[in-house]
């Protein structure tokens, strides 16, 4: 009898000119940290008039996302901006609570959590140490602060938004998305494409124009005492996890001609909980056969170790920073000289 009843119901629907198949959602996305697409509006931007009343699992309740990249001496490769944070703000640009948005997800051990999370790629922590390092030397503390204050305010990542949430999946999703955006919106390349490179004193108006030309939207450019410090890009979100550039809240604190310095030297090497790595074999040796030379790459184990690229003739040297070799330039002298297997000096 039940089979007859169901069949009759379908027949009635078809008779009414309705399609059972077409009544189902066509854009289904089962991303583990997004609500099902059949429960969320499609292509509605956060902070738009259409976003009013949309559940916080579909669009972030703090719907203006700020990607903050910094230019800091001693952090990251010489030709890359590094991360400060990804900050959910209110639609009018107001910052979130100083203590974050979820007291149950305030952590001080972000690096170990990323290490243990099964979905973390093998190279991910290396990328974090390279592109999201702290000038204070403690990357784990830096990441824990950014997650606790800002990551917990990204409502679409809340565990309750996923039917199959895995512990720390929200943490990985937050940091991996931020690094993805940093790579996609490469500020160094955008500026260099217009001839603006480190060691110059560009007019900040030209920097705004270069960013506008590269990405279609301007950015907020901030300085400290006339020296470039940070560049902020602003986004709205749609479809759970799609970031769409939007206009900045302001043009920033820089004005006129500013200093865009060459990065050199290094801050205190970070103390991390990352797994130890082996130092790669040197790419070349000095005439004595004992001191390595050449541009080093990949992993390293002795934080603070330095190796001249071309002793006695070049000002470049590689430095072991957070378990990775980073290329630097002498600032104390025009040429690098090797002292031992792990130390150099510039004169």
Q: Please identify the oligomeric state.
A: single chain
Helix content: 10-25%
Taking all Cα atoms into account, the compactness measure Rg is 25 Å
> CA-to-CA gap between the ends?
94 Å
Number of helices: 7
Which sequence of SSEs, written as H and E, runs from N to C? HEEHHHHHHEEEEEEEEEE
The residue-averaged pLDDT reads 80
Active site: 84, 146, 150
Keywords: Disulfide bond, Signal
Pfam families: CBM_19, Ribonuclease_T2
GO molecular function, one term: chitin binding
What are the main properties of this structure?
347 residues, alpha+beta, 5-stranded antiparallel β-sheet, 3-stranded antiparallel β-sheet, 7 helices, 18% strand, disordered N terminus, signal, ribonuclease T2, RNA binding, RNase_T2_His_AS_2, disulfide bond
What does this structure look like?
The chain is an alpha+beta fold. It contains seven helices and twelve strands. The chain has helices at 2-15, 110-116, 124-131, 139-149, 169-184, 187-192, 204-215; strands at 64-70, 82-89, 220-224, 227-238, 242-246, 284-285, 292-293, 306-308, 316-321, 324-329, 336-338, 344-346. A hairpin with a 2-residue loop joins strand 9 (316-321) and strand 10. The longest helix has 16 residues, at 169-184. It is globular and about 65 Å long. The N and C termini lie far apart (94 Å). Mean pLDDT is 80; it is low at 1-38 and 266-290. Pfam families: CBM_19, Ribonuclease_T2. The active site is at residues 84, 146, 150. Residues 264-294 have a biased composition (Low complexity). One of its GO terms (cellular component) is extracellular region.
């Amino acid at each position: 009898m039940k089979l007859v009843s169901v069949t009759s119901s379908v027949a009635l629907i078809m008779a009414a000119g309705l399609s059972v198949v077409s009544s189902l959602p066509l854009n289904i996305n089962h991303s583990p940290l997004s609500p099902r697409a059949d429960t969320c509006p499609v292509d509605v931007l956060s902070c738009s008039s259409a976003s009013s009343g949309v559940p916080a699992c579909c669009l972030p309740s703090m719907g203006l996302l700020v990607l903050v990249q910094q230019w800091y001496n001693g952090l990251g490769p010489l030709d890359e901006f590094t991360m400060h944070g990804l900050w959910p703000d209110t639609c009018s640009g107001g910052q979130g609570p100083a203590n974050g948005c979820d007291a149950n997800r305030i952590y001080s051990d972000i690096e170990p959590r990323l290490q243990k999370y099964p979905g973390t790629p093998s190279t991910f922590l290396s990328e974090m140490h390279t592109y999201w390092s702290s000038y204070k030397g403690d990357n784990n503390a830096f990441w824990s602060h950014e997650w606790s204050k800002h990551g917990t305010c990204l409502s679409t990542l809340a565990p309750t938004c996923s039917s199959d949430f895995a512990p720390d999946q929200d943490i990985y999703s937050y940091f991996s998305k931020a690094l993805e955006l940093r790579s996609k919106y490469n500020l160094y390349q955008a500026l260099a494409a217009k001839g603006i490179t480190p060691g110059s004193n560009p007019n900040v108006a030209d920097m705004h124009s270069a960013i506008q030309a590269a990405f279609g939207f301007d950015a907020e450019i901030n300085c400290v005492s006339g020296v470039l410090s940070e560049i902020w890009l602003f986004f709205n979100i749609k479809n759970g996890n799609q970031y769409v550039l939007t206009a900045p809240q302001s043009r920033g604190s820089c004005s006129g001609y500013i200093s865009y310095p060459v990065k050199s030297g290094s801050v205190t090497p970070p103390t991390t909980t990352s797994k130890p790595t082996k130092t790669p074999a040197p790419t070349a040796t000095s005439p004595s056969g004992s001191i390595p030379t050449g541009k080093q790459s990949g992993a390293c184990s002795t934080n603070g170790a330095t190796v001249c690229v071309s002793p006695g003739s070049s000002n470049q040297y590689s430095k072991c920073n957070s378990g990775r070799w980073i290329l630097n330039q002498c600032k104390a002298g025009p040429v690098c000289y090797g002292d031992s297997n792990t130390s150099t000096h510039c004169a």
